[in-house]
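Q: I'm building a small set of examples for a reading group on sequence design. Run inverse folding on the following structure and report the sequence directly after it, with nothing in between.
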């Protein structure tokens, strides 16, 4: 936000142009928008305006540079999760193929229902559902052993072996953050996702400390 604000001030504020905010109408979004506007106005000395609309029209406005800031955005996760669960039932053992379900004709040409984001979803917005959907329930079970069970076992071994408690706690917290994030984003085994990379590093860190023997 600060990096954006500096360029925005140079490009817009100094030229007398106001910074346009998406005028979103749900409570958390209204709050975050108001706070961000205060930061831009008081901290950067910019004038701000609001642009009304819905999620679709405001996203298009952002893409066309008609809106500068979209403070908060949520997808319709409930519909996406239900759609994922329904399709897990279709191929529960082997799944639909890793990386071969979302953003394909199968999902693109779903009937567009008002308020539903299924046709526009790029993943399940849940790491565990996404694995069951793409590699099947057995694949999900193996992934859970590697990403949940083994790190917990390594943490217990770290405690028993007297590994550095601060470093152990650091790796544990990073790993736990990744696990919690999987409840809302499909980051497991996403090689381009920095959260997954950091979680993976924490898992290896716990394993290393659990087998490290000093002296």
């Amino acid at each position: 936000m600060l990096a954006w604000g500096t360029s925005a001030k140079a490009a817009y504020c100094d030229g007398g142009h106001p910074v346009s905010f998406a005028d979103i109408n749900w409570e958390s979004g209204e709050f975050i928008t108001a706070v961000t506007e205060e930061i831009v106005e008081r901290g950067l000395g910019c004038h701000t305006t609001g642009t009304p609309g819905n999620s679709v029209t405001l996203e298009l406005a952002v893409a066309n540079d008609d809106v500068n800031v979209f403070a908060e955005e949520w997808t319709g996760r409930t519909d996406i999760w239900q759609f994922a669960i329904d399709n897990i039932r279709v191929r529960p053992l082997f799944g639909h193929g890793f990386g071969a379900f979302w953003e394909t004709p199968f999902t693109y040409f779903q009937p567009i229902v008002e308020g539903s984001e299924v046709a526009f979803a790029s993943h399940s917005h849940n790491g565990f559902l996404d694995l069951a959907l793409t590699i099947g329930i057995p694949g999900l079970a193996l992934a859970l052993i590697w990403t949940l069970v083994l790190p917990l076992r390594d943490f217990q071994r770290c405690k028993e072996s007297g590994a550095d408690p601060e470093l152990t706690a650091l790796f544990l917290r990073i790993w736990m953050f990744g696990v919690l994030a999987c409840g809302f984003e499909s980051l497991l085994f996403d090689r381009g996702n920095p959260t997954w990379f950091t979680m993976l590093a924490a898992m290896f860190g716990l394993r290393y400390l659990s087998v490290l023997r000093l002296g």
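Residues 1-10 have pLDDT under 50 and may be disordered.
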